[in-house]
Structures are given as C-alpha cells and as structure tokens.
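2 proteins. here.
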Amino acid sequence: MRKYIILASMLLAGCATSPQDCDLHAQDPSFITKLSCATSGGYRQNIDAQEQQVLQSQREEKIAKQDLANTQSREQASSQKLANEQQQLTTLRTDLDKTLNRLQSSKVKSKQSQQEIKKLKELQQQAQQVTSASEITVIESKIAEAKKRIDVLEQANTLH
C-alpha cells in the first residue's frame, strides 16, 4: 500500500508541474520534478516550443536574406541608371561644346549666329545643373534644334 501512496503522490506532483518548471537547463531540479516533467510531457512541450522558435527564426532569416538581395538588386539598378545618365550627360555636354565651338569658328558672323551662341551658352549653364533624365532629354532636343539652325545659317552663308 505504501508503494501506491508514493506512486499516487508522484502522479499528483506530476500534475502540479508546469512547462516552465520543466526547464531542461534548470539549476538543480529535484527527482520528483524530473519525474513529474517526464510523465506530464513538460519536457516535450519545452522541446516543441524551442523547435517552433528555431523554425520561426529560420523563416525570418530567409525573409531577411530575400529583402537584402532585393535591396542590393535595386541599389545596383539605381547605380547603373545613374552611371548611364552621367554618361549621357557627359556626351550631351561634349556635343554642346562642339556645337558652340563650330558656331564660334564659323565664318558666319551675323546677328543670328550671335543669338545662337548666346542660346548655346545658356544651354551649357543648364547642362551643368541637370539632375534628371527628363532634363537631359530636353537639353538634347534643344541642342538638336540649335544644330539645325546652325546648319541653316551655314548653308545660307555659303549660298551668298
């Protein structure tokens, strides 16, 4: 009978433990606490909870890695776009300088050519302050128009 009383008290003690009492890393749990945790499933609950935490951490790490890869991809695309715009702007400025030099060295010294020189110099200043691709496109179109006007001036000069 005594064995049954001890066994019954152990079972009741097992019911009295919580998963927090069944910490595998506890300092020095008693034999009864260990037995209680083993029989009540407290150890298993702790292990399951820790496994869930590990799985959640792995999911979060995977999401963070994907976010990092996406950010790096966007950064690389932005850098490439900026490099392309800077190259386009450099080409634009070179073209503008050549057009201005062509007009200044031309034999055409009319009032129209002086006005064109003034417009091209204004374009040069605008080109120094360009900050977007749309501004580059606007200046490119203005340079193309100026080239056409210069061609017309030069042709008119050669006909005379």
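next one coming up
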Amino acid sequence: MAALMSPSRRTLFGLDWLNFMLTDVPTGIVPFLAVYLAGYGWNARSVGIALTVGGISGIVCQAPMGVLIDRLSSKRELFSLGVIALAAGALLIAFMPTFWPVLSAQIVIGSTLSVLGPAICAVSLEVVGIKMFDRRQGRNLAFYSAGNVVAAVSMGLLGYYVSNRSIFFFVAASAIPTILCQLAVGPDDIYYERAHAVNTCNMECNSAGACSVFKDRRLLIFLVCSIMFQFANAAMLPLLGELFAKDNGHNPMMFMSACVVTTQLVIALLASWAGRKAGLWGRKPLLLMAFGALLIRGILYTLTSNMNALIVIQILDGAASGIFGVVSVLVIADLTEGSGRFNLTLGAFSAAVGIGTSLSQFIAGSIVHDFGFNAGFIFLALVASAAFGILFFFLPETRESKSWRTAFPQ
C-alpha cells in the first residue's frame, strides 16, 4: 500500500471548526430543554419522559449507524443529512411545545445525534491515523467545548432578552455554518485505510464478526463503568435547571447558561491536556479522576442552594466530562485497533451507554417527583461511587505505559 499523505492544514482546520459548530444542537436542546418545558407547565416526570424518548431513539440507531459508518468510504453526505434533521427537530419543538410534537422531535434528534458523534470520530481517525488519534481527539473535544461556551452564552442571552423559544430558532439556523465547515474537510485527505489497516498482524479480526469485539473482558468492564457514569451524570444538570425554574426568584435560563459555560470552559482547557496525558500516563489514572469528580459533584449539590456556589461546582462537571469524553474513545480505539470494527464498536458502545443516559432522566426525575431534589442528587452520587469502585478494582490499563507501571505497579 502506498504511503498515505499527511492531511492538509485546511482539512485539519475544517475538523476544528466542525467540532466547534456542531455543539449548538446538543447544547441548545439537551440542557435547555428541561427549563423550556418547565416554563410550559411540564412536571419533572414528564420532562424525564421526553428526554428519555430521545435517548431511546439514539440507542436503537447507534449500532446500525456504526455498521453503516464503518462501511461508508465517504461520510460527508450522511453528516449533512443529520445536521438538517436536527434543525428540523429544533423547529418542531419551537413551534409546538406540547407532548406528542416534542416526543416526535426528540425521536428525530436522538436518532440523528447517534450519527454525528461517531461520524466525526471516524473521519478524524481516517484523517490522522491511530498514532495521532490521542491528540486529535483531545483537540476535537477542546473545540467542541469552546463552541459550547459560545453557544451557551448566546442561548442564555437569547432566553433572557428575547424568549426561551428563540433558542431553538438559533439552533436551527446554526445548521448552515455547520454544513459549510463540514465541506472544508477535503475528501482527498480522508483515507479509509488509516482506520482499517492500522495493524496488519491483527487483520484476521476483520472476519471474526461484530460480536467478537465484545468478548474482550476489559471492554465489557469499561462498558459497565461507562453506563453507570452516564447514568449518574446525565440527569444532574437538567435537574438543577428544573430546581431553579421552579424558583421564581431566579432566572433559570441565565443560571443554566452560566452552568454550561463553566463546564465547557473547563472541558476546553482540559481536553488537549487529557489527550496528551492519556498517551503518557495511560488511560486508567485519568478515568479515576473523572469518576471521582462526578461523585464529589453529586454530593456537593445537596450541601448548598447558593447560585454562585452551584456554578462553581460545575468545574467538577467540566473535569469529569472533559476527561471521560477524550479517554473513553481512546480506550475503544485501543481495544479495537486493527480490527476494522472501531465505528461498529463505538456505535454499539454508545447505544449501551445511551441506556444509562435515558434511564437516568426518567428514574432521577421520578425520584425527585416523589422525594425531592436532594434525594435525586444523593441517588446519582451513589451510582457514581459504585462505578468508581468497579473501575478501580476490575479494569486494567488498556494501553502499555511506562509512567503507569511506575506509578501503579500491578
């Protein structure tokens, strides 16, 4: 096979800004939706159902979309269709904030979000290759989070000065620059072989079938930990938004904007660092830091109702989400290297993790409905604690690292 050319600067910048622009949809729909619906009289349980429906739609589509992305040599058209579908879902929520239209929009949004994240990971791997994927994934998340900061500030200001509904029009309008950024990623710089012919000595894995990937005990343990992480994490910020939406003395949109900005600023600062350190220290030390931060965050939410203190606590959200967002993809890349099953595994993995996210919204919302907000936060913190224990005692390092072996001898 001929040597693969290095990607052009235009393509690398295109990947940067594609990650930056894509954030508008999940930033606007996921954390702000709970506040938006609460303003129309939705209770915590109904909001949880709406968020759960979106998660279930993503779960159903993740694995099939992973297979499709693995087989497509060009993913740009699929990506553009997904962005357009997300914009349509946002408009439906804006015009018809009643139960069935919102659920329909959530089905569209959940299904298409299951395409976009894996597609960006796949394109990144095909552009830079496995050896540079650590740094590329860190850079992707850094730009993603920087875009989240801009989106959250913009949406908070729109919600405060215009209306809550204007946020969803902003999300729909963001589809245009997102597609333009996608076009900047040159097709001549995307090499299918970079992702699927990395390790020739492992190429016999290609014929072993999709299920063979999950025979790896390390992957199964990490899957359980990740489901629990997302279960504990997913409902915390929406619940906090609902809490303030019910308090007429505060503006929930500005509070939510401040929380999202704090979280995403921390992610933007940590993501590149996490990508570099994951290659030097190994994956497990960083994962333990992320799971520990999530546990502490859940406990701290029950100890104060001060708005400024709660915003500061979001630093822990940024630390946990930033590290996990980078390292989780690297663990999957470690365990599927040379198999040609990276996107299939990532899709199936994301589907299973989506179960945790979806159940979190519904179960935590039900606990809050019956027992109050503190009970909900304590429950989520207990789940995070159990995940930390499983990770610490049962998951080995997935990448050989001298620094890891020196600091944590086996």
